[in-house]
UniProtKB/TrEMBL annotation:
Domain Amine oxidase span(s) in chain numbering: 21-492
Domain of life per record: Archaea
Keywords associated with the record: Carotenoid biosynthesis, Oxidoreductase
Protein's name according to its UniProt entry: Phytoene desaturase
Protein's UniProt keywords contain Oxidoreductase: yes
GO annotation, biological process: carotenoid biosynthetic process
Record-linked PANTHER family: PHYTOENE DESATURASE
Family matches, as InterPro entries: Amino_oxidase (IPR002937), Carotenoid/retinoid_OxRdtase (IPR014105), FAD/NAD-bd_sf (IPR036188)
UniProt GO molecular function: oxidoreductase activity
Pathway assigned to this chain's UniProt record: Carotenoid biosynthesis
SUPFAM superfamilies according to UniProt: FAD/NAD(P)-binding domain (SSF51905)
Amino acid sequence: MAPSDRLPADATITVVGGGFGGLSAAAYLAANGADVRLLEQHDHLGGHAGVLEREGFRFDTGPSWYLMPDAFERFFGHFDSDPTDYYDLERLDPQYRVFWKDGDRVTIRPNRENVHEVFESYESGAGEALRTYLDRAERNYELAMDRVVYERRERLRDFVDPDLLPLAPRIRLFGTMDDYVSRYVEHPKLRQLLEYTLVFLGGSPHNTPALYSIMSHVDLNLNVFYPGGGIAGVVDGLADLAREQGVEIETGVEVQAITGAAGDFVLQTDAGPCESELVVSNANPAYTERELLPPTARSHDADYWESRTYAPSAYLLYLGVEGDVDPLAHHTLVFPTDWDDHFEAIFEEPRWPDDPAYYLSVTSQTDDDVAPDGHHAVVVLVPIAPGLDDGPEIRERVRDTILDDLAATTGVDLRDRIVVEEAACVSDFAARYDDPRGSAMGLAHTLSQTGPFRPAHRAGLDGLFYAGAYTAPGIGMPMCLISGEHAAEALLEEYPRAADRPQPTVK
């Protein structure tokens, strides 16, 4: 008997995990008539995109950049809505400020002329080279999104398609980002400005395909926004939309085991057993296989997951600070003039970096509600290799190093003004989110882990599907929204009687 023949029109589907991928998949499935329950082990939704509140300060604990507004508009548009129906959006100006440790700094504003002038000031002809680079990035972005990312292409044979022929001349985009960028600009600081977005993908300029030069279009053409309430406000909006579609959301419920198969799943939880006909796991596939599934239902052995290249982890400081923090912007980047050693410390010879690059989020420069009057909410993030020892002595040493470096590089000395302080690091990501090696983002976007080389939405177990950053299209809030769409689409194709309509309305 075919699996779909066992399932009624209002099949019960359980989504494990309430991150962006899980909320997206749940909303699509419920909109197509399924009976959807979402179980989240934490008291908050959003996965890594959590919120920390202390003594009048509020911090986003995970992602803090709202990029690719078009992807959010597309998602909400599938439900006849708009992001602004759920949260306000403010275009940031400046978008971000960059400090180099030699005393140099630049401010990036949300207009192309500003950025062209910045580039030309460092290298004659670089302004025009940037114009060419961004125009090509825009064309490549539109092709990649419309014909690869938004299309569900999980298998290599899905790439044997005439629709992809316009991408053929762009074969150079499968070289490294650093090689590609060097074709346009030579100055190392300009190359950093075009490559820093790789951190959002969990990669380095030397191991990430040049295809991701499209991120410069995202950054410099589509610009950077701030959602009202921070990223937590976006999570709330997604949850509200999912509930409007009929999703039943339960937080504080931990799934401890998944047994059975399509039509006859039992999820053991700390609140008791939960029966379900189909399952979508937004928990990462490595954890799902190793901790939730019986050995006979696993698609990969432990060696497979050990051999993956994981995106960086992070050392994070959440600081409530008294007084002014200018010239720090809402988003601030601090770079050594040569950042190769830091990337080597992440991907090649894992160790704590000697001269780290790092990022600061100061949402209180835009949002008065995230800190008491006369104070600022500051988040410091240092990308580091996953799996590092992060004991108390190491954390304290790195904390002091970063605060000293921040004062020396930007002139902003926070050391005697901190009134609230929390931290997170490798072991916290492993414990809270079950991330392999304490990665903060998942699988890096190396060439061998891009597109069809990422874990598929269909698991090896009949009736189990995956959504989230570990699957295609990959890391980042917009990508996870699309991943949820693709997981729902795959499920509804394989089990058409699981919904009132035979196909999801996601095109």
